[in-house]
Amino acid sequence: MSAMRKILRDHGLSLAFLTIFLLALIGQSIAGHAYTNEQLQQHQQLPIGYVEFITSSDFLVDVAENWQSEFLQFFLFILATVWLVQRGSPESKKPGDEGLGSDRDQLIGVHARADSPSWARTHGIRLWLYSNSLLLVMGTIFLLSWFAQSLGGQVVANEENAQHGSPSVSWIEYVASPDFWNRTLQNWQSEFLAVGAMVVFSIYLRQRGSSESKPVGVPHSASGIESE
Amino acid sequence: LAPRREGTLLVDDTDLKETQVIFWVWLGLIAVGLAVMITVPLAGR
How confident is the model at residue B45 (pLDDT cuts 50, 70, 90)? Predict the structure, then answer.
């Protein structure tokens, strides 16, 4: 097998999603540019160029509001699955396993293996940071995306205010505005619905071959760790 | 719990460099995206 084919096979999942992410983002930018120019034409204004559009808050606020909700979804799911279980779901630990797990189960400190990550063998703040690193990174990306949404949304809102002769709003006023929360909550509700549906549907439904599903013949009552 | 997990988390470090590259590409891409989404509105565009 050639080196390139081996790379494509070993990292197919991440490379496939990287590719469709970039294609969807480009598609969003093209459609968004066309839509913006339609709106400008209807208001008897000159169209803007593609580069001007993709470096405008109009485009970036739409990107940011979707990013924040996706990273919030994973942040909450990672956090919730520490403490909550759903009997029968492959996304869940089995009832009784709630919590952080013992050092032995987690292969940390003296229980670390020779091939464990080096920070799993440490103590104190370094071990705490590494033990929560997935949640910390997802949470940081969520907060920064949400902050970006608020900044971009404020610029867009003030552009519209200027066109209508209304006074501009401060950042604090914008994050308390219906526009900010409408953009935020319309994304959150769909994420929470999809995660909940995935947890519940995967109790009784199967996808043969998917790591997100229990094997087809595994009983409905088996939760994630039991079905491995 | 631990032995079963060990059984499913197969260690194969022959591609560790490539895997690290993939990880940093993703993190870098997101960092650049966040930087753009924060600096553009701050510049008032």
Answer: confident
